[in-house]
Design brief:
single chain; 117 residues; four-stranded antiparallel beta sheet
Length: 117
């Protein structure tokens, strides 16, 4: 089992920045990919960014590439999502995700990000 706890969401004006954190616990050694997803009202959950635990290779949605970065601090068992130049369309609940080598996916409880225009 893997437990994920997100924090760092909030209300920010367009053009501002936020940093989300996801603290990971449990069977950390089984995780191969960490990611951030988001879900806006009335829309499907979508991938925002991913990072592999082995090589640190990253992947971003086209809508956030160049504005968001994903990183990990292995010593703190924490994954971060740095969000810059935020837009109102970035408003959503952001979820941390962990994917294990067995194909199991774990989710955090979500953190709300609201960007005002």
């Amino acid at each position: 089992q893997v437990q994920l706890v997100e924090s760092g969401g909030g209300l920010v004006q367009a053009g501002g920045s936020l940093r989300l954190s996801c603290v990971v616990s449990g069977s950390i050694g089984s995780i191969t990919v960490m990611g951030w997803y988001r879900q806006a009202p009335g829309k499907q959950r979508e991938l925002v960014a991913q990072i592999t635990t082995s090589s640190g290779r990253t992947n971003f949605a086209d809508s956030v590439r160049g504005r968001f970065t994903i990183s990990r601090d292995n010593a703190k068992n924490t994954v971060y999502l740095q969000m810059n130049s935020l837009k109102p369309e970035d408003t959503a609940v952001y979820y941390c995700n962990a994917l294990t080598g067995w194909g199991l996916a774990f989710w955090g409880q979500g953190t709300q990000v609201t960007v005002s225009s």
